[in-house]
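pinging the channel bc i need a second pair of eyes. not urgent but kinda urgent?? the chain im working w is below, pasted from the shared doc
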Amino acid sequence: MPALHPPTKSTEAPATYKQPSRKGKKAWRKNVNVTEVTKGLDELNEEIIRGGVIAERPSEELFVIDTAGDAALAKKLSRNTSKPLKADEIIAARNSAVPAVSMRKRPASKTSDGIIEPKRPRREYVTVKELARLRNVADGQHETTVDIVDAAYDPWAATPKPLETLEIVEDKRDDKKKAPKSLAKEPISLLANGKKLPAVPKPAGGYSYNPRFEDYEARYTEESNKAVEAEKKRLAEEEAKRLKAEAAARSAAEAEAAEARAELSEWEEESEWEGFQSGGEELRPTVKKQRRKTPAERNRVKRRKDEERRLKHEAKTKLRKAQLEQIKQIAQQVAERDQALALAKAEEESDTSLASNDEVLRRKQLGKLKLPEKDLELVLPDELQDSLRLLKPEGNLLKDRYRSLLVRGKMEGRTRRPFRKQAKTTITEKWTYKDFTI
């Protein structure tokens, strides 16, 4: 008869290791696994019963330092229990005629032959010389060390050129500032004859504050003639400009009129092809029949109109070419006239712009700027004074000296710069709302 045992019921939750789903309330109790939690709680209770939680107890209560050692271990590992070596057994069994040398110290003999043996030096320590040698060896300096020197030449290369024959290039540059070569040369004056002028020329008789009548009359007449000639040339230039403008306007009007005549519509002009007639026949109107034109007639009319249009275009083009040629001729004539006037003006200026000794200048420009005009040093007859005290200060001495330097070729022309050249600045707006930091 089989033995009967009381029914055993597990108090633990049903173990499910896969745990497919725990979303539903009914499946929570079935699918949950708290085995590890209950096992940990049981181990914690057992540790508390035995005296406390091991993780919370100090190290002194858990460990002990053994300083005495195990007495039983020394008995197990005794020296006498070890087996002797085979070599020691053979040596012990051998009976030698010569006894073994004892390793202990023996006292010296009290009797001697009277000869004192020299004292042997003790070599138990390292001398200073040996110490220095060892230090050198440690540093890599051996007595038999061979110094390796790199070869100064390439054995596979060509034969080097001797140093004596090499060309030594000397640096002949001089860092000192040197004056230009033209500074040592004499300046060339602007006079046509190339003569040198004094810095302050002596004035002639007509420049005196109280000149003679003949000198004053001659100089006054000369300056008056120059002024009259200058005014005549100015009027001639104005007249030339006016004629040039009128010619340009006239040519433009003629061009517009010709273009208007050429652009007349073919419907406004009567075609000679319609009602073609000879010179001897009487003018009789041609009566056309009101009928429909055939395609051949339409094509003939189209070709005729195209031919008329082409002839008009060619005539118009020919007229424009003629006008262009005429304009070129007029422009060339005007340019020649202007050039002649400019040459005459330049000659007059060169004649009128005399130096202090009344000599003609060979050029009116030295550098980029033209030579300034000389002031007119002449007073009217009613302004002449018979005393130096009554004279009025006129002219500019600095300007005269500057022009004298230019005429003598000492310097180039300069212009006054009221404002110095400054760097260009650009004003921009700072976009502060775009600046950000991370």
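so Residues 276-281, 350-358 have pLDDT under 50 and may be disordered. and The first helix runs from residue 26 to 31. — does that match what u expected or am i reading it wrong
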